[in-house]
């Protein structure tokens, strides 16, 4: 059996013809397997969805009760058979509930890793390497210039700035699913125990993370009504990046704009966005994490999805591992 007979790229996304299912389809399909809850991977409107319970819960929170015709939850390490194809979910370390999906038939195993990272994250289960014939990897930060420092180091920079400028309000941009909760959790781990203020767009997901036993400490709404006399001087306020161009952001006293993203490694990007304190915190692998993971798994072949495919394909080829880009479209990652 050739790997392309088991899994192949189509305009709908990765398709498994013998199993008659798609992985993270970008268009509505009859049967979808979903790696994680980010909007570009988890879309509403599929007939049947198989995912971890957390991913199903997150989709329900974002799209409403009727986001799919029917759903089935699968636990990490559990295996189910779909039309004779064995399917297993394994932790990807990206956001709460995120999974790699292993697809297996006739002794051929392909692992579609979805989005993943290797850095420690207190808000989700850590990535588990799975031996396979073909490893499908993302390539969001697949250039040697992308090296993410330890996230705890970046949080220390934030807290140092809070101590240094006690009259200013630190506005931290962080994606609503995963990044925001990871940033809050890391701030707590660093010993900061004052209330943290969150934008309304983060409330449901932060509440869900807390219901799953993830300690985010005391969170208060950062909604300022007309005439609200609360003083946000010295406070930490977390909001989705999109909120920072709103009037919402301009109501805070002497705001100091921070942004938690892997893209903050590029000074020019930080400058363009008006970010005063860039925090290089990513839920994706940097270059070393990608190449170390491929070396560790030592797959027979590597397929590279969305991102900077060329550099990673070339690295694999030089390392003696056959590799090719998949050119999947429709993935503009939400949570970088
Ligand atoms: Zn993602």
TrEMBL record:
The keyword Nuclease applies. InterPro entries: MBL (IPR050698), RibonucZ/Hydroxyglut_hydro (IPR036866), Xnuc_lig_assoc (IPR026360). Its EC number is 3.1.-.-. One of its GO terms (molecular function) is exonuclease activity. This is Ligase-associated DNA damage response exonuclease. Keywords: Exonuclease, Hydrolase, Ligase, Nuclease. It is an enzyme of class 3 (hydrolase). Coiled coil: none annotated. Signal peptide: none annotated. The keyword Phosphoprotein does not apply. Transmembrane segments: none annotated. SUPFAM superfamilies: Metallo-hydrolase/oxidoreductase.
